[in-house]
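Listing S7. Sequence submitted for prediction.
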Amino acid sequence: MSSVNAFETDMKKLRRKRRTKRYVKNIAFIAVILVISGLIYLSRDAWLSYFDGILERAQSNNSAVINNGELAGGNYPIDISKKTNTTIGRIQKNWTLFADTTFYVYTPSGDIVYSEQAPYTNPVVEESDKRTLIYDQGGYSFIVAGPKDKIYSKRLSDQILLGAVGSDGSVAIVTANEKYASYLTVFDKNGSEIYHWADGTMITAIAVNDSGSGCLISSSYARGGTYRTVVTQLSFNSTDVVMQTAPIETLGFAVDYCNDGIWLVGKDSLYRLSEDGQTSLSYKYSFDLMDFSLSGRLAALAFKSVGNSGSNIAIIRSDAEDIYETSEDMSVNDIYASDAAVYLCFDSRIDALDRTGSLLATAPLDTVYREFAVLDSDIYLLGYHSVDKTDFPF
């Protein structure tokens, strides 16, 4: 209040000044302005180029990049109209396609590096930076593929429930047998068995760490009409449990490492756990979970909105308590979280959001795509009849 009173007092003093003095000062001020304007005009060649395009630069720094959505030519589009059961992924600097019973590795230009037959009844594809795991869920066989050729394949005596592959090439396979509900076998990058773990409950998710020295598993069971999940951290160099959480009231869908902690995606909630297994953040869903993607820094979840006409998106950081939520008027076909951005594919466009849910880039799509794979600044789009490629920098 004191600053307001002082301001009013100063204004009264100014009004009491004589009109003649104000007139003289105004004339002097105008003269100075004329002199400065003349100097600026005469020296315009030295500074005018600095302001060239300044408006465009300001707009670029404060709004999303709008791409034209133009698709690549050359080998694209790649026809898959006669193929079924397709899924797309990436491995090192190449992208991958599983179609029918064949696994393909393609270069960015669309040339086939190699292909491998995987005649499985219910194939599931899991990927890491350097290896791809293809296993027959409910069957007995799996293949480990690299960026240039197949590494090895195996046939087991027990039925495969699920599997995961680490960045170093280590593979974890969960099977079921007469003695145990879940039995974990870990293979090193050359296919040698290096670790075993028996679990009396059902292992529902698994993640191998980057060094290939251990893994996370989530084991779920039902009690009192509710599901409970226990997350266990294992070391392949020890028979002792590294860490185990208290039971968490959810059915575990996925578990993964995040920066300084662990992600657990459940049926009705997402949890961020500390390295010692304590819950540092929980997020209860308000809608039905459609899809999700996890990275070291981000967890991105897509939900069905009321009436199923649109979707709701939640972005959760590994190093913050804030949860960013946004809604869209279209359903999300596919979602992918990197450490820097969350990518969303809709029927008519593809978006990239930052960690706070703000739009980084968007591009229109003329065709509906079911899945996509991000490789540097390019996106490979899997449609019902073709695979396309588009440049998507931001």
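Caption to Listing S7: primary sequence and predicted structure tokens for the chain studied. Residues 298 and 382 are 24 Å apart (CA to CA). The first strand starts at residue 65 and ends at 66.
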